[in-house]
């Protein structure tokens, strides 16, 4: 527009000048000038800025005729065009600025919303999001022995050289973590993208004084080699600056061993320290790994270890060390354990038996005059095996430095923890036995009231026990048996009146064997051989498999009562054989274990079950010997690692607070596992079980039955264990049956009411108030003797289940346990 206007203006000026010249010059010149003027008028539309001057007929151009007037007009037009460009630019920049401000505002709002979602502002939802790091397990070493569907035939001590390891594929890059709090109405789901790191540890040559005792010797099997040398009694440890967060659901561990997580160590305020009147379990849903234990804090420690590329065994040990502080009424380093380990790469199961053993000075008649001496007091203490179990497991299947596994528990010693509902109730139960002990008082006595602390109170573990943990971290686990801790413990035991000596500690060994396997449908069940009751559980599941249960078997009262009847009868057939089992180092039980894990024998037992009536006496179920009920002081754990390895383990000090004695120098709560041996007298008119009598460094029979189930592709489908004495067997069987056959998810299966019959006595116990009167009446009609049972006295199951979409960790609400994972 400016260009055209300027051109027209210039043409008008020229026309005026031409008119003046017409009055002066001749008509011919005027005619020529007029023609030129018309040319300029028409050309102005073609060249808007008129930068090309036109010549007139007399040879003068426009500049000469107009005295630089055209130049001035053209410069003004150029300046106007520049001004317009500046205005356009300013307008564009203004729009861009507004757009950027809007974008930044939206981004900030989104960031605030996401931050709020990821924070721990709601106690009803716990989210763990972190980069996934793959943990690979050292390659196995060849051993002689196998465990087949028909069970075991021999023991052997042969160990071969290590084989090279093959790294497993890394986990997916998308990490989805969902934790469902069953005690709240809030469910939170968070999805983040992360890039996993893969760390492969080269194999090391095994060097160990421990003997491997596989349960049979028909084929060559593989065993992961030692990752820590055992060439000396005191294990060399590596001090590391790594710190693992021990509390706080919003804190995730570093994905690299060289990058420490936040060093803060807040007070452990477990969710299970909150009052819970309803026994509702906790379910965690994860994508790569999971941990189940007695507390949220300890499960989180195990999860942090896995995120730092620790193995399933590393995570298990760290979790159990923590649990020994927070759940000291049930387990600790003064007791023993049975561990079931699954090595995904070789698809092989291994058992570590580190149960407590009878002292060298013990004998079969030591409790004849006073049976209570096997429950309370110094004679009830057996030689502890817990720490030796940690040592053997870490040496064979661990990867992180030993000290790294102890450090989170040392932080608990500094910060303290909140007293759980379960611990408060058991302190109340046992207060008359422990209240006069100064070390128990230092933890559980409320000086203001003169009574024991209540649920939710801030407690700290005994200072002397924390010092023992520190010594174990610095000197290694073998210090417990032949180092500084061993000397202190031997002095404690002598002062307390125990018959355990330094020689008992120095010669204690844990056993490493192959797990017993049995087909269960399309899956493979990995059970732990005696002194565990794993073969009994396997036999019961084998009997029940043939009923081909479905969801319809729980649909109505009649179907439900029939299902309870069948499961109860199967429990009786299993318990009938339990008194015949014992320590395999003292009893030849190979044929019996082979029979119990044989599907054909299970089918024969199943055919004896009458759907309308119970059988008569214990002998009708095949019982030849009597059995006793186990105490309750037990904890169970399950761990599933990102590389597919899994661990199910049960640990115990026997009764709650064991012998009720605590080491004055070490602060260790000492077990009463001598009570697990068979006693002379019984009320069932059956002979005493010779397989479970006291002998030197013999292990007593136990109901502990950590189980692992893998599918046809070798992936863990279920890792499960339980606490609760003899009720462990029924708890595992019922939860597994509901999860595998009745179509229930893991949480529903664990929350369901339970029932028990251990044949000795032949009574059907059921959780009071959880069964309809009609169902109970139908059971009475079949001949069952019924007895109500408090849910607090029931079994406590800890399990991890897996399907194609997710990993599910569920901690039983009967103990208000906790889960962790990512």
Automatic annotation (TrEMBL):
Enzyme Commission designation: 2.3.2.2
Stored Pfam families: G_glu_transpept
Keyword Methyltransferase: no
Active-site feature positions: 634
Gene3D superfamilies: 1.10.246.130, 3.60.20.40
Transmembrane segments: 96-114
GO biological process: glutathione catabolic process
UniProt feature, compositional bias: Polar residues: 228-242
Tagged with keyword Acetylation: no
Residues annotated to bind L-glutamate: 652-654, 676, 702-703, 725
Region (Disordered): 46-65, 160-272
Keyword annotations: Acyltransferase, Hemostasis impairing toxin, Membrane, Platelet aggregation activating toxin, Toxin, Transferase, Transmembrane, Transmembrane helix
Cellular component annotations (GO), alphabetically ordered: plasma membrane
Listed GO MF terms: glutathione hydrolase activity; leukotriene C4 gamma-glutamyl transferase activity
Protein name, UniProt field: Uncharacterized protein, isoform A
Organism field: Drosophila mojavensis (Fruit fly)
Record lineage: Eukaryota, Metazoa, Ecdysozoa, Arthropoda, Hexapoda
Gene name as annotated: Dmoj\GI15346
């Amino acid at each position: 527009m400016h260009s055209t206007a300027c051109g027209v203006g210039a043409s008008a000026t020229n026309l005026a000048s031409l008119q003046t010249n017409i009055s002066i010059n001749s008509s011919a010149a005027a005619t020529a000038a007029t023609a030129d003027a018309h040319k300029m008028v028409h050309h102005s539309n073609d060249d808007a800025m008129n930068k090309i001057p036109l010549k007139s007929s007399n040879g003068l151009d426009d500049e000469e005729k107009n005295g630089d007037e055209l130049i001035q007009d053209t410069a003004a037009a150029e300046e106007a065009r520049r001004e317009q460009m500046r205005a356009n630019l300013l307008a564009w920049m203004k729009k861009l600025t507004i757009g950027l401000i809007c974008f930044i505002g939206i981004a900030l709002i989104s960031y605030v919303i996401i931050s709020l979602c990821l924070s721990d502002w709601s106690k009803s939802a716990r989210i763990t999001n972190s980069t996934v790091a793959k943990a690979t397990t050292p390659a196995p070493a060849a051993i002689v022995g196998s465990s087949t569907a028909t069970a075991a035939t021999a023991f052997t001590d042969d160990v071969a050289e290590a084989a090279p390891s093959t790294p497993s594929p890394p986990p997916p890059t998308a990490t989805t973590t969902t934790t469902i709090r069953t005690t709240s109405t809030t469910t939170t789901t968070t999805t983040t993208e992360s890039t996993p790191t893969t760390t492969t540890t080269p194999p090391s040559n095994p060097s160990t004084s421990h003997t491997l005792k596989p349960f049979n010797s028909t084929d060559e099997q593989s065993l992961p080699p030692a990752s820590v040398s055992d060439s000396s009694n005191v294990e060399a440890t590596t001090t590391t600056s790594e710190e693992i967060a021990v509390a706080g659901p919003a804190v995730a561990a570093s994905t690299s061993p060289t990058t420490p997580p936040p060093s803060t160590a807040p007070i452990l305020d477990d969710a299970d320290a909150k009052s819970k009147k309803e026994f509702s379990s906790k379910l965690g849903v994860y994508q790569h790994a999971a941990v189940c234990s007695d507390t949220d804090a300890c499960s989180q420690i195990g999860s942090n270890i896995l995120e730092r590329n620790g193995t399933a065994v590393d995570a298990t040990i760290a979790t159990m060390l923590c649990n020994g502080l927070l759940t000291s009424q049930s387990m600790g380093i003064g007791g023993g354990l049975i561990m079931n380990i699954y090595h995904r790469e070789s698809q092989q199961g291994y058992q570590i038996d580190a149960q407590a053993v009878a002292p060298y000075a013990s004998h079969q008649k030591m409790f004849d005059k006073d049976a209570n001496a096997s429950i309370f007091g110094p004679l009830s203490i057996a030689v502890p095996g817990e720490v030796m179990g940690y040592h053997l497991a870490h040496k064979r299947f661990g990867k992180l430095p030993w000290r790294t596994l102890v450090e989170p528990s040392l932080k608990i010693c500094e910060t303290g923890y909140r007293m759980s509902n379960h611990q408060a109730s058991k302190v109340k139960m046992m207060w008359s036995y422990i209240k006069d002990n100064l070390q128990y008082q230092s933890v559980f006595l409320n000086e203001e009231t003169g009574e024991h602390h209540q649920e939710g109170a801030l407690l700290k573990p005994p200072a002397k026990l924390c010092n023992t943990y520190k010594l174990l971290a610095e000197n290694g686990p073998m210090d417990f048996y032949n180092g500084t801790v061993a000397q202190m413990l031997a002095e404690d035991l002598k002062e307390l009146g125990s018959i355990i000596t330094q020689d008992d500690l120095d010669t204690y060994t844990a056993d490493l064997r192959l797990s017993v396997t049995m087909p269960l449908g399309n899956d493979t069940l990995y059970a732990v051989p005696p002194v565990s009751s794993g073969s009994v559980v396997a036999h019961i599941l084998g009997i029940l498999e043939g009923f081909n249960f479905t969801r319809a078997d729980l649909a109505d009262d009649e179907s439900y009562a029939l299902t309870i009847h069948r499961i109860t009868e199967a429990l009786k057939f299993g318990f009938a054989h339990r008194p015949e089992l014992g320590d395999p180092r003292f009893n030849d039980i190979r044929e019996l274990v082979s029979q119990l894990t044989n599907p054909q024998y299970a089918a024969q037992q199943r055919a004896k079950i009458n759907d309308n009536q119970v059988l008569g006496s214990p002998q009708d179920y095949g019982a030849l010997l009597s059995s006793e009920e186990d105490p309750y002081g037990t904890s169970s754990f399950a761990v599933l690692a990102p590389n597919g390895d899994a661990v199910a383990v049960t640990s115990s000090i026997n009764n709650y607070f064991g012998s009720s004695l605590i080491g004055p120098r070490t602060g260790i709560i000492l077990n009463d596992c001598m009570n697990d041996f068979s006693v002379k007298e019984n009320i069932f008119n059956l002979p005493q079980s010779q397989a479970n009598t006291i002998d030197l460094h013999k292990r007593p029979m136990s109901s502990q039955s950590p189980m692992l189930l893998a599918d046809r592709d070798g992936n863990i489908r279920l890792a499960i264990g339980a606490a609760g004495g003899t009720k462990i067997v029924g708890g595992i069987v019922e939860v597994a049956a509901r999860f595998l056959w009745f179509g229930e998810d893991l949480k529903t299966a664990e929350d369901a009411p339970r029932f028990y019959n251990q044949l000795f006595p032949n009574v059907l116990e059921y959780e009071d108030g959880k069964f309809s009167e009609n169902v109970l009446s139908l059971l009475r009609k079949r001949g069952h003797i019924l007895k109500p049972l408090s849910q607090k006295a029931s079994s406590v199951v800890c399990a991890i289940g897996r399907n194609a979409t997710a990993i599910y960790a569920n901690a039983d609400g009967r103990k208000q346990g906790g889960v962790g994972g990512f």
